[in-house]
């Protein structure tokens, strides 16, 4: 009996499970059996691996062959096991020294000609391998840069099975013809989701020209709300008539956010790699993502799921970035209410018969809505013809529990003629506002050092009430609103979080009564008397 083993990784959502690939050869009628809960695409690897081995110049063993994927209780899918299966078979046939394979992690699909094709999810797979103690990883050459993002792991990128066999047997490494410059590379097809185009989700990723806040005319209250939302990662609702600039403002929010930390960049890149929307030629995403799905998106498209292996949804693709829902009341009510759990926990748990899948979803939610179906309700001279019932039904599509989780609610009024024709340079640029946002986040990070939280929106209300106090008497107005039923207990906590963000922007050691009044105004829309503000 001949035996060899190597390792690969099975992805469950964005988390990897190390799988040992074992190959056993016994005398008997030539057959190839694959066991270990493989799905259809993995079962088909038997034919791909056999053809790839033969076309790579190696001899296929004419004996009874059994390949086992362990642990057998974990469902396995995809074509990323091909390379590990082929090498385990060659090791069992003693064409490769089995000892060379035992401590290698292999990820990659095989073409019938023996070329190694890239697959999605290489980064989270290599992260799982590193956590399991593996230090040598073999991946397709196209994804070697992505795999190299994981520290402490030696990455070998190969173009073909022939090259890998030569490396493992200390033979001369054959040269593979590279793709001509400008020619299409069919090998990259494995990295993209069908219909994803260039690899970025429609409405996600940075636009060709970076939008600037200096281009926004007027909208002082909305600009202030964007600054507060960026500084404290607070969720935001823009309500106003069509053409007031809600979408224009939303597109400029990512430019106010600070760059991702190395840890956050790996989290975001891992999600985009699994989803097949990683931008080509950019193995690491270091800027906050921006995802704006169409209002016809289903609940599975928003929170993740789908038939078969669940896939990341828009909330995960917007992890550490911005999720913008334009025309929010036009979304399915079920889809909107499904956002309530990830807004609180920062993650999505998708339950299926085969098990549960966990995906990160710590995003900044920005909603934009019209006041009524026609958008002209309460607009002077607007001529709204919507019935009170239609208006009430339209506004009720944003449920109370969902709105209670939105920290900032701002009415966006149409821009006046004077504001529109004001000379350039009157409005601050995104760069100037982003500098203040970074300073505010540094203050919050210093205050929250030694805790699991980094921004004000993540701090539990109990901690705010017991560890970080505002100035004496600062919460008097908020407590009155709570007694009158204008605020829930959750709402009071969120007002306190926003007040801390306003204090950080203003450079205050603790929230003052004015900071809390500003926070109440941004949440309830009711103006309060102020002696000073953060608006600029």
From TrEMBL:
InterPro entries: AAA+_ATPase, CHLI-like, Mg_chelat-rel_C, Mg_chelatse_chII-like_cat_dom, P-loop_NTPase, Ribosomal_Su5_D2-typ_SF, Ribsml_uS5_D2-typ_fold_subgr. Transmembrane segments: none annotated. Residues 232-416 form the AAA+ ATPase domain. GO terms for molecular function: ATP binding. It comes from the Bacteria. Keywords: ATP-binding, Nucleotide-binding. Pfam families: ChlI, Mg_chelatase, Mg_chelatase_C. This is ATP-binding protein. It comes from Streptomyces pactum. The lineage of its organism: Bacteria, Bacillati, Actinomycetota, Actinomycetes, Kitasatosporales.
């Amino acid at each position: 009996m001949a035996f060899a083993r190597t390792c690969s990784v099975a992805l469950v959502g964005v988390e990897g499970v190390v799988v040992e690939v074992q190959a056993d050869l016994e005398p008997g009628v030539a057959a190839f059996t694959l066991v270990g809960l493989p799905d259809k695409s993995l079962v088909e690897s038997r034919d791909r691996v056999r053809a790839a081995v033969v076309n790579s110049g190696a001899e296929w063993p004419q004996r009874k062959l059994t390949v086992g994927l362990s642990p057998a209780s974990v469902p396995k899918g995809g074509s990323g096991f091909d390379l590990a299966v082929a090498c385990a078979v060659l090791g069992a046939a003693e064409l490769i020294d089995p000892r060379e394979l035992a401590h290698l992690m292999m990820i990659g699909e095989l073409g019938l000609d023996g070329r190694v094709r890239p697959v999605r999810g290489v980064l989270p797979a290599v992260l799982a391998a590193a956590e399991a103690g593996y230090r040598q990883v073999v991946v397709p050459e196209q994804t070697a840069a992505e795999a190299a993002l994981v520290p402490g792991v030696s990455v070998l990128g190969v173009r073909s099975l022939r090259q890998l066999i030569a490396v493992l047997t200390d033979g001369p490494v054959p040269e593979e013809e590279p793709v001509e410059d400008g020619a299409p590379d069919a090998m990259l097809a494995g990295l993209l989701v069908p219909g994803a185009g260039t690899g970025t989700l429609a409405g996600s990723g940075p636009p060709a020209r970076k939008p600037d806040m200096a281009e926004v005319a007027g909208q002082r209250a909305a600009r202030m709300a964007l600054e507060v939302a960026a500084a404290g990662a607070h969720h935001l609702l823009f309500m106003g008539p069509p053409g007031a600039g809600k979408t224009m403002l939303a597109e400029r929010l990512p430019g106010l956010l600070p760059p991702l930390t190395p840890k956050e960049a790996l989290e975001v890149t891992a999600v985009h790699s699994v989803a097949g929307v990683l931008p080509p030629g950019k193995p690491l995403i270091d800027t906050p993502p921006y995802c704006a799905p169409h209002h016809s998106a289903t609940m599975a498209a928003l929170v993740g799921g789908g038939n078969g292996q669940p896939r990341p949804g828009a909330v995960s693709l917007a992890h550490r970035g911005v999720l913008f829902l334009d025309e929010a009341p036009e979304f399915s009510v079920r889809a909107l209410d499904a956002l309530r759990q990830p807004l609180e926990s920062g993650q999505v748990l998708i339950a299926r018969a085969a098990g549960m899948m966990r995906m990160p979803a710590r995003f900044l939610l920005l909603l934009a809505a019209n006041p009524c179906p026609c958008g002209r309700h309460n607009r002077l001279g607007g001529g709204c013809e919507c019935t009170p019932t239609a208006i009430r039904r339209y506004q009720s599509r944003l449920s109370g529990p969902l709105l209670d989780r939105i920290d900032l609610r701002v009415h966006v009024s149409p821009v006046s003629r004077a504001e529109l024709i004001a000379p350039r340079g009157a409005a601050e640029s995104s760069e100037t506002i982003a500098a203040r946002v970074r300073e505010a986040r540094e203050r919050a990070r210093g205050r929250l050092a030694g805790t699991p939280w980094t921004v004000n929106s993540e701090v539990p209300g109990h901690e705010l009430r017991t560890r970080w106090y505002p100035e004496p008497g600062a919460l008097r107005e908020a407590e009155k609103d709570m007694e009158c039923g204008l605020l829930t207990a959750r709402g009071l906590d969120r007002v306190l979080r926003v007040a801390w963000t306003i204090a950080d922007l203003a450079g205050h050691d603790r929230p003052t009564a004015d900071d809390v009044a500003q926070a109440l105004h941004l949440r309830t829309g009711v103006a309060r008397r102020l002696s000073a503000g953060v608006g600029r």
